[in-house]
Design a protein that fits this description.
The protein has 401 residues and is an alpha/beta fold. The protein is built from 15 helices and eleven strands.
Length: 401
């Protein structure tokens, strides 16, 4: 009997952990976004090179690319890179070049093979070709507002700032899997990011948007040094932080596209993301167990000695869970998918980052991730050893300044 009571009390105590986490994450969001909205933008506008490694098309690729051509910024260029000229994105990029003749836009085809991560191989070439000292990285599925460059570049006026990274809102296709991923990122994943920023400071970057400089990139060995990294965005920010550069979370939120999922592709992405977290941040991976409130409060309700205790746990979970989701994702990030589907935030799942690949290229990206993960198996690192293969770069359709 005593043993039974001890286990019951232990479960009731552990079930409080995610509830406390929800309160703290809500406070972290109030602290960060309240402070961010009160700050004034610096008038710092040096020349910038926007680097966009692209593979395949998303369902709104033209709108995503065009948003970078409408920046309220005086001096910038946009560099696209694809693996080969058969990439479906090439005609869309050429259309962008034709429709925005006032912008300096170049398309590069091919990249030297430095490692297993083809995106980073393309980034290495883009960085070499870039004319600006300041580099802004974003994927092909990202869309931005007209003041995006001004906002993400401003913190780099401080030489101690090594990188600036951004949260992202979801643009989801009408598909339950796509909406769950968008809701998960805004309500769960960003809550964890805000807690990290509050407790330990940011020592990583989010792949939707990263602004840095050639100087800081050189301090970490360039993109070539992370060409075998699975989570290249995480690794880039982490290495800059280790080099004593400050990684800043920008108040400028971007958008990212979430494509429709089949049940299989949704499951594959969840597993891939879990493996990535386990490799990069093993302690955080274990900690995810104590941020999932629904299983814990259901277990607490089952073992509760009286019904009112069970009711208090369930009610506290609903109030605190939705309060965190709304404060982080709706009030802070401004995610309209979460605003419409906030009830989905009640589903227990892992903290979720961005997906890799689009409808047309998702399987190819999944194969690359599997290859890197297979190579990394057994090592407590995000990085795998480079191969020795190499191929020549070629350039087409470039506009020079």
């Amino acid at each position: 009997m005593a043993d039974s009571a001890m286990w019951r009390d232990a479960v009731l105590l552990l079930a409080l952990t995610p509830l406390v986490y929800y309160v703290l994450a809500t406070l972290a969001a109030l602290r960060f976004f309240g402070r961010g909205r009160a700050r004034e933008s610096a008038n710092y506008t040096p020349p910038v090179s926007v680097l966009k490694p692209v593979r395949g098309l998303d369902f709104q690729s033209y709108e995503n690319f065009a948003s970078f051509c409408r920046q309220e910024y005086p001096d910038y260029e946009i560099l696209f890179a694809v693996n080969d000229d058969a990439d479906p994105a090439v005609p869309v990029i050429r259309r962008i070049i034709a429709e925005f003749p006032e912008r300096e836009i170049r398309l590069l085809v091919g990249a030297e093979h430095f490692g297993a991560n083809s995106k980073v191989n393309k980034l290495a070439r883009l960085a070499r070709e870039a004319q600006g000292e300041l580099l802004v990285l974003s994927d092909g599925d990202v869309r931005v507002g007209p003041r995006y460059l001004r906002e993400v570049v401003a913190p780099l006026a401080d030489r101690r700032t090594g990188a600036v990274t951004s949260f992202y809102r979801g643009i989801a296709e009408k598909n339950l899997g796509a909406e769950i991923e968008a809701v998960s990122a805004s309500s769960d994943f960003f809550a964890g990011v805000l807690m990290a920023e509050w407790v330990e400071g940011i020592s990583f970057a989010l792949g939707a948007s990263i602004a840095t400089t050639k100087e800081w990139l050189g301090k970490i060995g360039g993109f070539e040094a992370i060409a075998d990294a699975l989570a290249d965005d995480y690794e880039l920010g982490h290495r800059i932080a280790k080099a004593r550069g400050e990684v800043v979370l920008s108040r400028e939120v971007v958008w990212t596209v979430y494509p429709a999922h089949t049940l299989r592709s949704f499951w594959d992405h969840q597993v891939r993301w879990a493996r990535t977290v386990r490799l990069c941040r093993p302690l955080s991976y274990v900690g995810l167990l104590f941020t999932q409130g629904l299983p814990w409060v259901l277990l607490a309700a089952i073992v509760a000695p009286v019904k009112w205790v069970a009711g208090v746990y369930l009610l506290a979970y609903l109030i605190l869970r939705f309060a965190m989701a709304w404060t982080v994702g709706v009030w802070g990030v401004g995610d309209q998918v979460l605003c419409r589907r906030i009830w989905l935030s009640n589903h227990p799942r892992k903290a979720q980052g961005r997906r890799s690949g689009s409808n047309s290229t998702g399987r190819q990206h999944l194969k690359v991730h599997r290859d890197i993960l297979r190579a990394a198996k057994g090592r407590k690192s995000c990085t795998v050893f480079p191969s020795n293969s190499y191929h020549t770069c070629v350039s087409v359709g470039s506009k020079s300044r």
